[in-house]
From TrEMBL:
Keywords of the record: Methyltransferase, Transferase
Keyword Nucleotide-binding assigned: no
InterPro entries membership: 23S_rRNA_MeTrnsfrase_RlmA (IPR052939), Methyltransf_11 (IPR013216), SAM-dependent_MTases_sf (IPR029063)
Stated name of the protein: Class I SAM-dependent methyltransferase
GO biological process terms on file: methylation
PANTHER family per UniProt: METHYLTRANSFERASE, METHYLTRANSFERASE TYPE 11 DOMAIN-CONTAINING PROTEIN
Residues in Methyltransferase type domain copies: 52-137
Molecular function GO labels: S-adenosylmethionine-dependent methyltransferase activity
Length: 248
């Protein structure tokens, strides 16, 4: 059985580029939302003529499309993801642009569909601008207090900001001139089965424990390691919401 230090070292050494979570197989699990984002996105894409995927990550979800629209573009801001996304999206003929999260470098009214899975921020004014009249925005987003059990274990009890909450997203969409046509929310069970999975997760999903460093949190990680060994897992809950909006 690997020691605590060996697990820390393993979790700290796994590359964090892209949004491929296959490394976690057998080490951590997360329930998926009942609505099936990838399926919904594919359905919308099949009837679109010009579509944009905002903050595509490594393009892993977009790459699952079997019927891409005639014009397909994607943006990504994090340089390590760009090479991964370019490779994943090449078979679709997608046009990939490196762009800041709050900027969509396209002409107004270009797309009849804009999608985004887990955006760092949603630039609602930009989304509304690049949508054509009658166009729609479909997005699965991380809700307020996601994985707060892990945050609180390592940092102590933290206030839950509503900045990422569904109500804030709805208000921002409406302020940008969009009509919200759908909203669903779910809390999803997560389980971490070893401390290496926790370390890799915190390095990859950097907003759960801002500024996370293994040595800074070594003592708390040791306590969490002991708890996982005793209880066989650490349970947390991710918060997700699905929002769909239309430009009239």
């Amino acid at each position: 059985m690997p020691t605590f230090d060996e697990l820390l070292s393993e979790g700290a050494s796994v590359p964090v580029g892209g949004w491929d979570f296959s490394w976690f197989s057998g080490r951590a699990t997360e329930a998926r939302p009942s609505w099936g984002y990838a399926r919904l996105m594919a359905e919308r894409m099949a009837s679109a003529t010009a579509a944009l995927d905002v903050q595509t990550g490594g393009g892993e979800v977009l790459a699952t499309l079997s019927r891409p629209p005639a014009l397909l573009a994607a943006t990504e801001s994090w340089p390590p993801n760009l090479a991964i996304a370019r490779e994943n999206l090449r078979p679709l003929g997608a046009f990939l642009v490196g762009a800041a999260d709050d900027t969509l470098p396209f002409r107004s009214g270009t797309f009849d569909l804009v999608v985004s899975r887990h955006p760092v921020i949603a630039a609602w004014d930009e989304i509304a601008r690049v949508l054509a009249p009658g166009g729609t925005y479909l997005s699965q987003q991380v809700g307020a207090g996601s994985v707060r059990e892990l945050t609180d274990f390592l940092m102590g009890p933290q206030p839950v900001s509503q900045a990422r909450g569904a109500a804030v997203a709805v208000a921002a969409a409406r302020a940008a001139g969009l009509t919200v046509t759908g909203l669903r929310q779910e809390a999803l069970r997560m389980e971490f089965h070893d401390i290496a999975a926790v370390v890799h997760f915190l390095r990859k999903v950097i907003w759960i424990v801002p500024g996370f460093e293994v040595e800074t949190y070594r003592d708390r990680l040791a306590g969490l390691h002991d708890r996982i060994r005793k209880e066989e897992s650490f349970v947390a809950h991710s918060q997700r919401f699905l929002i769909e909006a239309r430009r009239d």
